[in-house]
Amino acid sequence: DNTPKKELPKFSDILSISSDPEEIFTLLYPIGHGGFGTVYKAIHNETKTIYAIKIIDFIHGLKNKSFDDNDKKNNFNNLFFNFNYSSAQQESILMKLCHKSKYIVDYYGSYYSKKTNTFWLILEYCSAGSIIDLMLSMNRTYTEQEISTIMKNVLKGLILIHSKNLIHRDIKAANIFLSEDGYAKLGDFGVGTKLGIGVFFRNSKK
């Protein structure tokens, strides 16, 4: 087949606000939920490449919240927005530091949607899902050999993460994903952090 292949889209490194992600991607259906957002299987409209997109809603926390007055509502709104925005920004920064590893879910860029006030993280789509998803679909537990292979991949991912002074802080079966080529990959850096000093960092001296 000599048909020229389209290049992968050149996504933003950290954040793009010049383009509306709703016009670039088509969301197919949700494939995961978490405290910081919902993950969708999505297709890039131009190249037809499949991605996983994590969408973080900055004002979701207000939908079922009641307040005695507008000042309290505005204060909560600002606090919730700043917390969610900081968490989303941090996750994109941490994932970029681990870009192109066989043992980490790949990160391609992020967008801010002005239409919906949401943050979109463009991630590698692991078609087999998480190791907990696969175990449930197989209706059996993993063999010792399968566990050994998964743990070997996870430990190699951790070696990379720790070499960059990062901490994942949420390693569990639901955050370990299986790629088409058979690698177990660490994903979901939503509560991850970096050793150091700063707004988003843990102080390694403590």
Describe this structure in words.
The chain is of the alpha+beta class and 206 residues long. It is built from 4 helices and 10 strands. The strands form 3 sheets. Strands 1-2-3-5-4 form a 5-stranded antiparallel β-sheet. The longest helix has 28 residues, at 70-97. 28% of the residues are buried. The model is unreliable at 1-10, 61-67 and 72-83 (pLDDT under 50).
Order of helices and strands: HEEEHEEHHEEEEE
Main sheet strand line-up? 1-2-3-5-4
Number of strands: 10
- Average pLDDT number: 78
Structural class category: alpha+beta
Low confidence ranges: 1-10, 61-67, 72-83
Q: Give the termini distance in whole angstroms.
A: 58 Å
Strand percent estimate: 25-35%
Major β-sheet annotation: 5 strands, antiparallel
Helix content: 25-40%
Query: Quick one: overall form?
Result: globular
- How many helical stretches? 4
Rg over CA atoms, rounded to whole Å, is 18 Å
Topology:
Blueprint: H1 21-24, E1 25-34, E2 37-44, E3 50-57, H2 70-97, E4 107-113, E5 118-123, H3 131-138, H4 144-163, E6 166-167, E7 176-178, E8 184-186, E9 193-195, E10 201-202
Parallel strand pairs: 9-10
Antiparallel strand pairs: 1-2, 2-3, 3-5, 4-5, 6-9, 7-8
Describe the structure concisely.
The protein has 206 residues and is of the alpha+beta class.
Which key terms come to mind for this protein?
single chain, 206 residues, alpha+beta, five-stranded antiparallel sheet, three-stranded mixed sheet, 4 helices, 10 strands, globular, disordered N terminus
